[in-house]
């Protein structure tokens, strides 16, 4: 990920035939899900980073939602992070992200719905405003995370996918990477005594090469999010 974040006055980079392109943002948790999927599956691609605080006019014209992430190849455009991950898994062979059986895929979808509506919403609301959670909100967040801990206990595996990370793991990971760095729990990490299996899962995820390649430290997240609403957000601070 070395492309500078493009803003007003920039030109749309020329599209190459049969080249998969991700429009993203280096610190965006939803875009990170796509990066993880691409890297796990070993899919060749290029990245165009967008300044999401001050977007290029061509980006808004091309993609009416104005949101990242977006995948584009030839005349095909796909957006929404989970849909993009499933699309990549269906189109590109090799490493499979989704579970093998219809029943397990259904169970994963139920867990994804819980995560996206309860956990990710709390974390990402904090990401957008950087307002701390009050004690009631924190308690509700931890109660929702309890359900993920219990699910890992039932699955008896290091990852939600089994012995290797899959769709559920890569959708969950960016939010858990940010819990500490964004001070979602007032500077506290996920309590290891309450969540021993999730703590082990996080350790296992950090050993996955695809995760290592996109991983940012707690300090890097904290610095970026605290400056997000300033006159000069640090979009390009970590780029070459």
TrEMBL record:
Catalytic activity as recorded in UniProt: RX + glutathione = an S-substituted glutathione + a halide anion + H(+); methylarsonate + 2 glutathione + H(+) = methylarsonous acid + glutathione disulfide + H2O; L-dehydroascorbate + 2 glutathione = glutathione disulfide + L-ascorbate
Alphabetic keyword roster: Oxidoreductase, Transferase
Superkingdom to which the source organism belongs: Eukaryota
SUPFAM superfamilies attached to this UniProt entry: GST C-terminal domain-like (SSF47616), Thioredoxin-like (SSF52833)
Domain GST C-terminal, chain residue ranges per copy: 101-234
Domain GST N-terminal stretches: 18-96
EC number per UniProt: 1.20.4.2, 1.8.5.1, 2.5.1.18
Main function: Exhibits glutathione-dependent thiol transferase activity. Has high dehydroascorbate reductase activity and may contribute to the recycling of ascorbic acid. Participates in the biotransformation of inorganic arsenic and reduces monomethylarsonic acid (MMA).
Family as reported in the entry's similarity comment: Belongs to the GST superfamily. Omega family.
Protein name in the entry: Glutathione S-transferase omega
Gene: LOC100369976
């Amino acid at each position: 990920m070395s492309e500078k974040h493009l803003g007003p006055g920039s030109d749309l980079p020329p599209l190459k035939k049969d080249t998969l392109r991700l429009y993203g943002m280096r610190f965006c948790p939803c875009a990170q899900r796509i990066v993880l999927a691409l890297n796990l599956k070993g899919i060749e691609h290029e990245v165009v980073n967008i300044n999401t605080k001050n977007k290029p006019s061509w980006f808004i014209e091309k993609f009416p939602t104005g949101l990242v992430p977006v995948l584009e190849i030839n005349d095909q455009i796909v957006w929404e992070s989970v849909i993009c991950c499933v699309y990549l898994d269906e189109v590109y062979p090799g490493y499979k992200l989704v579970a093998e059986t219809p029943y397990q895929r259904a169970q994963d979808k139920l867990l994804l719905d819980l995560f996206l509506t309860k956990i990710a919403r709390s974390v990402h609301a904090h990401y957008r405003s950087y307002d701390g959670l009050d004690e009631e909100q924190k308690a509700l967040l931890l109660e929702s995370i309890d359900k993920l801990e219990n699910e890992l206990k039932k699955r008896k595996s290091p990852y939600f996918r089994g012995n290797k990370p899959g769709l559920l793991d890569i959708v969950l990971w960016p939010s858990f990477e940010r819990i500490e760095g964004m001070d979602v729990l007032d500077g506290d990490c996920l309590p290891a005594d309450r969540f021993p299996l999730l703590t082990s899962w996080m350790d296992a995820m950090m050993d996955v090469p695809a995760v290592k390649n996109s991983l940012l430290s707690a300090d890097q997240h904290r610095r970026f999010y605290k400056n997000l609403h300033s006159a000069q957000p640090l979009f390009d601070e970590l780029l070459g």
